[in-house]
Hints:
Elements: H1 3-17, H2 30-33, H3 35-45, H4 53-59, H5 74-94, H6 104-111, H7 114-122, H8 139-144, H9 149-175, H10 177-188, H11 203-212
Helix pairs in contact: 1-5, 3-4, 5-9, 7-9, 9-10, 10-11
Amino acid sequence: MSRPARSVKSLLSVNSRVPPVASRPVTGRPEVRSGSKFSDHLNGVFPGLQFPSELARRILTHASHQTATNGHNASLSFIGRRVLDSYLHLFLTSSSALTPEHDLENIAYHTLHTYALGEHVGSKWGLGRTLRWVPAIAPEVREQVSDSPDLRKVGLYKVQGDAVTAVMGGIFSQFGGSVAHRVFHTRLLPCMLVKGALHEAFHRDALAVCDRMGGPEGRLVKNSSTKNVADSAY
Length: 234
């Protein structure tokens, strides 16, 4: 069995062990009361999906933040990384542009690099506006580099990249593989059709799959009577 097939099988096993996150009752804790701002943001980025407040809060809380003791996005990011790797390899191995000269591992490395995801996808999704995180440098050093936009961007792109994979992990766990697959091809991969990310040879096929799945503004949740385009996208 090929590597992508094994990965998808393992993902289905992971999904069966990760129950959807239900919304929790609002309590007096500040982080819970403010949970709606996180779900509001993600619901706006992905129309048609309704993120439970607790799930959205976890997705948009980095382990560096002081509230991370109440839950952060590391485990969802781990799941999301496997989701992305599986979907990308399925796409690449089914593409007519693939030749024996292509190095799949190298292509995947550049396409799914954390900083690249943060810069091109995380910024497009506006994650930095609601993401909770703290730069991993001492306060006195932070003051010295506060005027360096390049250094600030490096840190932001890293945590945004982690948040992107957490979003994918959250979507896969909460809404299922079909929705996550459609998000990958219509909302994420088109953002990586830039220099240094997805290999140019695969750009045409990436756009074609995106179009078959409804395009960048297409519905993410299909009616039960509608043919599952995600399963026949290749």
